[in-house]
Amino acid sequence: MRLATLARDAAAAGLALREALHPTVADDAPGLANGQPARTLVLLGFTGGRQWSVFAQSPEAADGEPHPLDRWSRRVIDALARRHAAMALYPSDGPPWLPFQRWAMRRGEVHVSPLGLLIHPEYGLWHAYRGALAFADELPLPAVGPARSPCLDCADQPCRRSCPVGAIQATGFARDDCRRHVSTVPGNACRTGGCLARLSCPVGRAYHYGADQALFHMDAVVRG
Ligand code: B12
Ligand code: SF4
Ligand code: SF4
Known about the structure:
Blueprint: H1 2-13, E1 16-21, E2 40-47, H2 52-56, H3 59-62, H4 68-83, E3 87-89, H5 100-105, E4 111-112, E5 118-119, E6 127-135, E7 168-169, E8 172-173, H6 175-182, H7 188-193, H8 196-199, H9 211-223
Antiparallel strand pairs: 1-2, 2-6, 3-6, 4-5, 7-8
This protein binds cobalamin (B12) and iron/sulfur cluster (2 copies).
């Protein structure tokens, strides 16, 4: 019930409830303000472009100050934390970074893709985490069965060869090669339309970001 209420409040604020788990010591969840361990973590974020318009209409999106999406996330998720007696956590706090991707993978719904991004069976590569709420008590969680990674059934794996500068490498993401390309004229397709490697993935096509959302994220890549 509490999770259902939280999901409703989060949706009203422009966020999807992405994952919920009871952390163990191996999850490296930070302690609560009173020193007690967090007994439930609830991850909040975006699924495709569905929530983008809420952020796009926010004061942060229009004020011209740096990091508008992070500042919007903090305002909205801090308010949810106050309302639901939880502590807010953010993926952008760091380094050291909080292990959001590890938390997201914990119940087996999402998996690491060759891009390093997590892949979801429905949303594909088109989802992100904007924050989490840490609770002092164990909230009852709906059962979520582990899902098979779509990458295991993807014979062609086009994401591995769709980057024009080969930034998707077996050893990791070549950030500088990507940034250099996207910052110059030959990289205009990535800059204005979004990452070509990500776009080549057949999973979650219905959740591709719209032009504004894609441009916002590619601008962030260029700014570094
Ligand atoms: C540092 C960082 C970057 C760096 C370095 C990324 C890199 N690949 O090395 C830079 C600036 C380059 C970057 C770029 C991007 N990032 Co980034 N980034 C982060 C950040 C802040 C920390 C990542 C980290 O170092 N984690 C280390 C520890 C803490 O992570 P962890 O949870 O234990 O999980 C790791 C393991 O699970 C590991 N892992 C486990 N098993 C395996 C197996 C394999 C084969 C691999 C490769 C990894 C792996 O993967 C995780 C490491 O990233 C996270 C937010 C966060 N707090 O997690 C976002 C985050 C990972 N980024 C994200 C995104 C979307 C991007 C971009 C697409 C940017 C954009 N414009 O939208 C690009 C894509 C780059 C790419 N192809 O990887 C999302 C990913 C969402 C998702 N679907 O998974 C995150 C979670 C932020 C968010 N708000 O949602 N990013
Ligand atoms: S293109 Fe295939 S291998 Fe690459 S992320 Fe998509 S499903 Fe996984
Ligand atoms: S944005 Fe373009 S250059 Fe960067 S990884 Fe994606 S396809 Fe490669």
